[in-house]
Amino acid sequence: MHMTRIAIPLLAVCLTAAPAYAGSFSFNRASAEKMVRDCAEEGVNLPMKTALAIVEARSDRRFTSIGDLTDIPGMTEELLRDLDPIEEENDLVFNPNALPGMKSY
Hints:
The chain is mostly helical. It has a domain at about 25-95. It has helices at about 1-15, 30-40, 50-55, 75-85, and strands at about 25, 85, 90-95. The protein has a three-stranded antiparallel β-sheet, with helices on one face. Strand 2 and strand 3 (about 90-95) form a beta hairpin. Helix 2 (about 30-40) packs across helix 3. It is globular and about 55 Å long.
């Protein structure tokens, strides 16, 4: 019974915090389908062909900085600006909740 008093409020906090990460993904781990879907949900048009090129390119290297995406086929300056990836702990992340210009360092 005592455990229930702790578990229910904790579960409620976790459920309300979950939407903050909806649509966020790592360019190093997400499938091409997830990248395209999550970008579309945020109004960013990431072509499937470009998402597949990201998946293929990461087989040889890890994306850790914004510049790592510039040589991906189909990646334009405009698309890169729309994606606005953030550098986060040796990873590159699409986070629609991040404020532009507020990068994690």
